[in-house]
Amino acid sequence: MTSSTNSKAFGFGTQVRKSPYFDATVRWGAAGFSVYNHMYIPRDFGNPEENFWNLINHATLSDVAVERQVEITGPDAAAFVQMLTPRNLSTCAVGQCKYVLITNAEGGVLNDPILLRLAENHFWLSLADSDILLWAQGLAVHSGMDVSICEPDVSPLQLQGPRSGDIMQSLFGDRINDLRYYWLEEFELDGIPLIISRTGWSSELGYELYLRDGSRGDELWERIMAAGQSFGLQPGHTSAIRRIEGGMLSYHADMDCYTNPFELGMDRLVDLEMDADFIGKAALKKVVEQGITRKQVGIVIDGEPLTGANNEFWPVMVGGEQVGKVTSAIYSPRLKQNIALVMMAIEHSAIGTEAEIDTPFGRRSVKVVEKPFYDPKKNLASKAA
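-> structure tokens emitted (385 positions)
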């Protein structure tokens, strides 16, 4: 364990919440935080490339308690959840997880959570950064449906990487090996109540452990770290390198409420033919009729390795005209390339298209390529533990 850091160095007042793991992450070397869903999230455990190699070679434990849960219960819970999303949930079983989009009346994406179905009328939405709790509560008032909506005392950790299965088996025994990709089960660890799912924001084999008693966060963190030492487990943060390699989207960066699912290539998450209605259905039907004018693509960027991720939307230029914007860019030390996700005008989105981008490091040449950049079929994430 690394030496203690003074947690008083991080302070925005009581309006920014600390997770149940905050003190543990500081003890284990967290040196920088940002704010996400009104809560601190660790963003710095040292060299980001070292964090990446730890993730893909061994395992990392990350505090993602900022993935706040919107809990929806009541006799009409299933119908209400279906109203929120264009993904057809008619076959979503109890114990199953689904990646879903939440759309507004214009068909724009408000969030892209993982949906967990804990019981017939008990759901969690595990959120990206936004205020979907307020959105859902507002809709419920006027829906005429019998539902209760709240933020429960639930705080997830992510244990990700190729050795995560070994660590989980050492903690929970052989039962954990029966947990399928995108399914969940209820567990206890030394009396600590958990929901565990085979999910994560890394494109690697991994698990999310949803702590259901915030008073035991420090205990859970230390228990996992102790079990993982012989397997090379390191504390870490979600890896921008790995998630961009895997084409995983970050809300507010790669999409927002003005982005529709078809621009993102997420047609599979939209069922316009199902009987159930959902918010944005009419608007998305119109998008299909009219076609999209822009599309998310992957690019490779020439030149020296980028230092860190982009903090601005770099313009994409063709013939002196802006035709798109870079939403997420990074250097991949594994691929030895600068890679990026771009929202591009449809007429310039074909594979092989060449363009230029303006960056703080000067103008760079780019080419549109297939995405995801690595493991496109997610074999690593979905393989048996």
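The first strand starts at residue 32 and ends at 36.
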